[in-house]
Structures are given as structure tokens and as C-alpha cells.
């Protein structure tokens, strides 16, 4: 009798395991837009369709190479050929150089995050940037808010699989916002892409798997992973189109999650704030989505937009919200204030003129694509570029277009410069442009000779002095051009200055932020001056394209890890530093040396006061 009971228990257990068993395809880093991306993905889709035992497909980002509308549309067309349910999130290649600020991805695929239940498991996937500007990976603020809502509705014992493009480690600047949350639930494992290689990982005790890229790379054919979910374990095995499933290379035990980790749990340190205690936050506002721009301000209000299309105005006195305005797309355009009008662009394809005091729409201009560029007001005219390959001059009071230049290659995402009757700006189409301020005619354009769009002078705001325009592209070279004809006067690559530059108040010096610890200075002149001086400020590895702003005999800038710095350029000494959060600090708005307004990628808007 006892043996019969044991047999029944084992049989029931076996049947339960069988009932829970299922398989899914784990595809990542397809990079449609590269030489073999399209063909490799088509082969994978056809191969998946031949397998009747796969229940669904998960695609974990870097679906495209540059996030263009054409690439995203092609990827959607290919994936739509799948004959079983499929789910997709973006990666950094889909958002970092996106001409729409991620709007096209959401329009094509419906969302940039997802959750669904299957055989008792809950699958949860978040988007991850960076968005538009170069920075670390980042789970968007709105995705974290969304994740809280999903987890709140998840039973404590329900098994969860967490999905992200990046590993949930410090390759994301806010990794802990994910790990701290999922470890409170019955997390089984996480999957990710980004690294293009199969790898067993562990995120603070949460077992994880990085998947290989679908690209063939040096092989003759691409591939992906098939995940077999059994009652006791999840097995990962490579599947190459047309070939048999390879033996499992990774096994993760399934069961009740117990939070433990053999590695040290690390969190960002704010110790630097104790060193410079003279810096305080007068107020802090945490937006509901990413803020990847510079807030504008007058004597009463602070205005900014966020990545879910909201424009908000706060009291500059206490940070309380005064009004809001909703656009139809993500906002990466730093607003400009002229009198009582606020001007900005939106991912919905419109340029807006809003009433500063109420937020009500005064006028708007429809363009043919997202408008990510930052406006510049000069007198009664506002100048702004968009992703429809147009740069416009607009009457700020009426919203009437004065002129347009339609010969832009790539998307415009930066801020223009007006100097000696000329408008200067860069784009993600390789070139720096010079237009006639009065009629928009092209005077000249320049590129650094690289065919790679990733080296475009897109994010650096140019500066100019004595007939010379200065800028730095991602090629890590500081360039000086003749403003009249675009001829190269000099190019200096000693310090690997990457996009982040600024000019002293008297125009005598150019400042550059290097990619490791140092700020450097150069004299403004027509021949290569070499580096005048170096200042080691200890900010570590750095790649954020935030400009250096000179005001009241000091220079201010932000970094990738949420720290704002001020230094004295005359004695080459750090004045203060203050950590706001752990994400990218945008170009700061320096009211004066005692008051600095700023925003971080995680949506933190704050006013720092310095004693």
C-alpha cells in the first residue's frame, strides 16, 4: 500500500511537471540595418515557424542598428511573419540614435515594455535607453513607475521572469531600481541581450542569462536560444536555422526564490556631498518620466518636457507644479523662453508655442517627423531643426514660418548657434551646417570624413570667437573651422574631448571635458594652440554630451553618474561637486554661481543653492 501511494505521488508530480513544461524562442540583438541583419532575422523567423513546440517568441532589444523609421518598419515587417505570439522591447541601438526619440518604435510595435502570463509564469519586460543622447543604459523613469504597478498586481508566490536589453548590473545606471523590486517577489531568472554572447550571469542572487546575437558575425549563419521550461528548471540551448537544437548550455533551477547573493551588494555613494556641504537642494521634483533636456527658467517658473510627452511648469521658488501640457510624443527639445512664450519641439512632429503663465497653446507648426532639436531665440525669431531634414526660422509671436532649409542629412537633436549672421548646427547625418540667418541658404557644410553616422557632430553645441567656430564630435577631436567658408583651421585630439565643450565668458578659452577625469583648456586662436592646462577633477570615465557653462568666473557641468561640478578656470581648482542621483546630468542652466538649475535622465529636476 505504501509503495502504491509513493507511486501515485510520483506520478502526480510527473504529470504536474509535464503540464508546466513549455518552450519559447529567445531572440536578441538582431540589428536590422547592418549588412546581414535582415537576412539573419528572416532565416530565424522561418526557422521558428517550422517548430510546432514553441509557444511564443521574446525579442530583447537592439532590433535595429540605428533606430531609423525605415529600419524599424522593416524589422516589424519581418517579425510580423511569425506564426506564434511574439513580444519585443527596444535596446540602446533602437533609442540612442533614434530620429524620433523612440516614438517610431512605440508606434510600430505598440509599446516599449510588456507583460504577459503563460502557464502560471509572469513575464515582465522593461525598455532601456539611453535615449537620444550618449549615456549609460537606463530603465526609463516611466517604465519603473509601470513596473511598480505590474508588481503590485502580482501574487507574492507567482513565478516571474524579468526581461531587459541590458544586464541588470552597473551597465544600467539605475540597475538597483530593478533588482530591489524583483527580489521582493518570486523571481525565477532574468534574460537580457546587449553583449552578443551566451553567458551565465547573476544579478545580486537573481540567476540570469545573456543571449547570443542573432547576427551570424564570423559564422555562416545566425542563431538564437530556445528556452525549455520544465517543472524544476529552465534549459537554454542554441538553435541555428536549418540545424538541430544544440545540447543545453545553461540550466537554471526553478522554485521559490530566496534572496541571497555571494557577491557584495553595491549601491551608489553620495559621500561626495559631505565633502562639499555648502551645496544644497532648495527643492527637488521627480517627474513621472525621463527628462533628457535642459529646463528653461524665468524669475518665476521652470519649464521642461519629459519622455512621455508632458510639458510641466514649476515654481522656481519651491518646485511646486503650476501647470502641465500634453503633447503626443516624447520631448527631448530643451524649451526656450522669450517674453511670455515657451517654444519647444515634440516627438509628435509639432513645434509648440505655449503661454508661459498658463501653458495654453498659442500656436503650433506641423512638421513631417519628430522634432528633437532645441530651439534658439534671437530677437523675434526662433530657430529649430527637426527629424524631417528641415531647419526652420519661425516668427515667435505668430508661429509663422519665415524660411526653411530642407537639405539636412539625418536628424537634428542639438542646439544651434547664431554668430556673425550665420546659423550653425550639427545633425546625425555626419555634417556641421552653416546657413544664412536671414534667408536660410546653405553657406557651407563640413564633415570629418567618416562615413559612420555615429561620429556625427550632432550633440555638441558649437561656440565661436573671432571668426572661428569650435565643436567636438564623438570622434574625440576638437575642431576649429573658419566661419566664412568651413575650412579646417585645426583639429586637436590630444585630450579625447568627446562632444562636451564650452567657452569662457571673455571668449579667450575653450573648455573640454575628457573621457576620463580631466577638464582641459585651449586658447581660442586660428592655429592649433595645444592644451593650455589640464585639471584632474576625478569624475572617472565619462561620455555624457553635457556642455560646460561659464558664468560668474566659474564653469559648471554634469556627468554620467549624476554629479554636478563647478571649477575656477583662473586658478584651475574644483570649487564644489554635488551628486543628485545616479543618472546622466543634462547641460545645466546656471542662474548664477549661487544657483544652478538642472535635470537628470531619471526625471529629477532640482535647484541647487550654493553658500
From TrEMBL:
Q: Residue limits of the Calcineurin-like phosphoesterase domain?
A: 23-197
Q: Its domain of life? A: Bacteria
Pfam families annotated for this entry?
A: Metallophos (PF00149), PQQ_2 (PF13360)
Q: Which SUPFAM superfamilies match?
A: Metallo-dependent phosphatases, Quinoprotein alcohol dehydrogenase-like
Q: Which residues form the Pyrrolo-quinoline quinone repeat domain?
A: 309-526
Q: Which UniProt keywords apply?
A: Signal
Q: Does the keyword Signal apply?
A: yes
Q: Where is the signal peptide?
A: 1-21
Name assigned to this protein:
Metallophosphoesterase
The species this protein belongs to is Pedobacter ginsengisoli
